[in-house]
Amino acid sequence: MPCPIDSEIMFSMEKINRMTSLPWTPFYAQSQGEQEPSIMSTYAMALTVLFTVFVFAFEHMLDERQAAAYKITKFPEQLEQTVRLIDAEKKNKKPESTTGDGDRKDSTATATATAADEKKDLDKDKPILPQLKDKFAKAQTYGTDKISFGMLCSLYNLLESVLFLMCGFLPYVWDYSVKLGDQYGGYNENDNEIKITLIFMLVTTVIGTITSLPFELYSTFRIEKKHGFNKQTPALFFTDKIKSLLLTCVIGGPFVSILLKIIKWGGE
Which of 47, 55, 79, 154 is 20 to 30 Å from 95 at the Cα level? Predict the structure, then answer.
């Protein structure tokens, strides 16, 4: 009696072998009947995957160059020399004397009014060079964390894109949207193509939001918070995410419907 596990393994191996030989075919494909293979159908999937990998490799190369620049910890020498001259000039400059109480009050009021703005930027009463060096170090650290995490996200996006292509994710979601439309709205694919398209876009948007959510959470509440840039709470984050989805449906839905209507009208 043949082992059922061996049969499943052989079936999977045959499926993988068919996928790696041209034409590449996804695991899930919509039934279109028997058609003669064309150049487009033979090379479309393979060229799409190769182009996706090429774009990722090119962008990864640029990210590597940027990451190397962020790892530089030495402050630029020319800028350091220029700032040193400015600090020395400020140190040697004698403060101007004031001649009355009115002038003192005015200067005090001016200093008080601009104190908050100076704290946000550089303290002009202190040497500029140490402050710039501190800001430079913090900026390099922040840039390194951002670019490293961005490269990880890019790798995930590549794997997700290739996996969705090879699995036939979009055709499957379309057929699933047709089932949802027929089950809950009585929509027909031929007569209600625009409504089915809106369901399709809603499903893909929700799935995309879910798959990207862990990366957004880590970026917001780990990296941004680490460097003092995050002012959001988890409740505010998810509230904004829900509002964004609702706005996408309210604004994007009618726009896509009108666009598809125009395309359909033009085709007829």
Answer: 79
Residue with tokens 């703005």: 117
DSSP result, 104-170: HHHHHHHHHHHHHHHHHS--TTS-HHHHHHHHHHHHHHHHHHHHHHHHHHHHHHHHHHHHHHHHTHH
pLDDT in tens, 78-132: 999 999 999 898 888 755 544 445 454 444 444 444 433 444 567 777 889 999 9
The pTM for the full model equals: 0.77
Name which of 55, 155, 54, 43 is nearest 163 in CA terms.
155
Residue 185 per-residue DSSP state: T
Q: What's the rounded Cα separation, in Å, for the pair 224 and 229?
A: 5
Token pair, residue 63, equals 């990210």
Residue 21 DSSP one-character state = S
